[in-house]
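Sequence in, structure out. Go.
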Amino acid sequence: MAETNLLEARGVTKRFGGLTAVSGVDYNIVKGKINAIIGPNGAGKTTFFNLMTGIYKADEGTINFEGKNLIGLRPDQVNGLGVSRTFQNIRLFGNMTAIENVLVGMHKRLNIDMVSTVLRLPVFNKQEDRAHDKALDVLSFVGLGDKLNEISRNLPYGDQRRLEIARALASDPQLILLDEPTAGMNPQESADAMALFRKIRDQRGITVLLIEHDMKVVMGISERIAVLDYGKKIAEGSPEEVRHNPRVVEAYLGRSGTEGAQEGLGLSAAEAVEAALKKAEAEAAAEITSTSEQPNAPSKS
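Output:
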């Protein structure tokens, strides 16, 4: 069966003053697949996410979703077309309950005018009941059905990540973008998160794109992987193809590191890639720990 591209990016470039964060990137998101973007810190991954979701406007290129160019649209307009996302740093409404956070995610799908809302007309009550039922369904789907009235800031870290995914699902997306969704999780939480990502694709029919530093997650769940380095796409393919790509290990270790890993340790190119990815994973974990101690630290992705 022929693959269909849900999103197509062509020649996408974003500059910040004299810094080119994303440079001429061509990228396809295959419909119905779990896609991933990886790369060293500062490679432009989160910037590319922000371009696809309307937070930044590309200086050059096109980003077409279902045939419509997303460049120049506001984030709410992009969301209205069927693209939702989570963030690298959790962005929940801390003083609101879990179900209230999910209800916020539905605002683009509700059709209620001000008069109906103020006067509490039957049409308002009907849609409010429907939204409440849907929020219960989404929370149950992500495993938080018993925590709908919990204040979100009081939830365990892993549950906060799940709640952010639930809020993104509440807008009925065709494509969900997950920015480091397993960051800071322990191995069991990461395994549970991987099961949830598959469930989103298999049971809801939603295409998934994730940025992730945990290479066990990336290699274990992704069907297509793209690699960015200094804002450019340097590799793309299946996990096995990326695993055997010398340019990937060079991006993580540098040319001298690649040669040293292969010659000094007697490693093959594939083994050197594995070593580089494990090194990157360890560095990312250390950075996450450091960032958690400094909550206002800016993202480098």
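Check: The CA atoms of residues 158 and 192 lie 10 Å apart. Residues 260-267, 296-300 have pLDDT under 50 and may be disordered.
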